[in-house]
Amino acid sequence: MEWFFLFIAGLFEAAWAIGLKYTDGFTRLYPSIFTVVCMILSFYFLSQSLKTLPIGTGYAIWTGIGVIGTTILGALLFNESLNLARVFCILLIFSGIVGLRLISQ
């Protein structure tokens, strides 16, 4: 269950990172509420996963999922570039996540 919690935490991390863009410096109410709720949920699920996972592994995977999700959503929602170099770097992060998962007990 801890890996599922960690995955959900990473998705909420990407959601709150994207939500920050819509808050306009926390001056817009509904996007700000969405962002804060996603932050709370992200930290909650991360804390649940860290009951059994090592902190280094959990934190690295949490941030990695957030980075990948935020990059993909940034490209889809804000037309941010996804050139070959960025895709390669994202694939490196993904391979690190997979590697950490495979070597974790």
TrEMBL record:
<dbReference type="GO" id="GO:0022857">
    <property type="term" value="F:transmembrane transporter activity"/>
</dbReference>
<keyword id="KW-0813">Transport</keyword>
<feature type="transmembrane region" description="Helical">
    <location>
        <begin position="59"/>
        <end position="78"/>
    </location>
</feature>
<feature type="transmembrane region" description="Helical">
    <location>
        <begin position="84"/>
        <end position="103"/>
    </location>
</feature>
<dbReference type="InterPro" id="IPR037185">
    <property type="entry name" value="EmrE-like"/>
</dbReference>
<dbReference type="InterPro" id="IPR000390">
    <property type="entry name" value="Small_drug/metabolite_transptr"/>
</dbReference>
<dbReference type="InterPro" id="IPR045324">
    <property type="entry name" value="Small_multidrug_res"/>
</dbReference>
<dbReference type="Pfam" id="PF00893">
    <property type="entry name" value="Multi_Drug_Res"/>
</dbReference>
<keyword id="KW-1003">Cell membrane</keyword>
<keyword id="KW-0472">Membrane</keyword>
<keyword id="KW-0812">Transmembrane</keyword>
<protein>
    <submittedName>
        <fullName>Quaternary ammonium compound efflux SMR transporter SugE</fullName>
    </submittedName>
</protein>
<dbReference type="GO" id="GO:0005886">
    <property type="term" value="C:plasma membrane"/>
</dbReference>
<feature type="transmembrane region" description="Helical">
    <location>
        <begin position="27"/>
        <end position="47"/>
    </location>
</feature>
<keyword id="KW-1133">Transmembrane helix</keyword>
